[in-house]
Amino acid sequence: MILTELAIGAVIGLIISTTGVGGGVIVLPILTYFFGLNALAAVATANFLSMLMKISSSYMHFRLGNIPFKGAMIVLAIMLPSTFLASLLVTWLGSLEGYEKQVEWGINLLVAAAIIFSLYLFVQRMFFAAPTKITVVQASQLKSMALPAVLAGIVLGATGVGGGVVVLPMLLRYMQLNIKQAIGTSIFVTTVLSGSSALAYAQEGYTDLKLALILCVGALIVMPVAKYLLVHLSERTFQYITLLLITCSAVMMTLNLFSF
Fold this sequence. Notes:
The chain is mostly helical. 82% of the residues lie in helices and 0% in strands.
């Protein structure tokens, strides 16, 4: 069983490190379908696991020069309060007797809506926007991103969906980063945000700490492979991989919504 968990963790870690897609797109379905966790436990564990896995990934992207640090810190400051407060609200609602099913359905609805909207943003940026290599974030870009960042923080805190599905398309759309910069910034920002959300969920005992730690060890094993791919694969390749993952997630979570 542990070997299986390590292998699954390795796959998750490779995807998160190279595409920025993880918490909502990959981890939530795996925790739900493979390990049988309910919606609240899956979100709580996904946030904690996302934080653990992305610490090493953030360092790797920082060394590769993929994180415009000043812009990333401003985005983090905007998103952090809404992420933490949303997590506290969901845990409180989940503790209300007789409302567990409604909370679980609401979480799945928000996940599906966030993924579909992010898919639209990503497709628009990938196929209809002019290519850009901007590395210095302008003040006007950050101002236009303020409201989307707050909303993205709420979605991340309430559902565990964050990096590749919400934050990555937002960075591409409003900060005009190239794909590798957007992936690196998304991973760095959501490392901290997932940690704050995990803290809120852990207070109510929803987090499966043992499972998260085993999956994280599996993810660390493949870090050298992830670094090799980031250095040698083209930007367009990462765009297509990310698009495929978000599309699959949109289909999966929409079908899961109608299963209630």
